[in-house]
What does this fold into?
Amino acid sequence: MKKVGIIILVIVFLLILCLIPFRTVQKDGGTVVYSAFFYKVIVWHRGYTNEQNEPDFITGTDVYIFPFNFGEKQPE
It folds into this structure.
């Protein structure tokens, strides 16, 4: 029984580790990506110039849950 308890404790610890996000900042005007194994949250703040050559920004938040959190995402 002691072995089963240790195995359960290790599994719970690994699941908690999979929920801890890593923060990365993109060099596109301030976009921040929080990514963990089970999810990814992207806070968009991308700068660009529009048709009138004026600065503009894309802002918003996207949340992706496992298994759709892998790969590069682009704002729509």
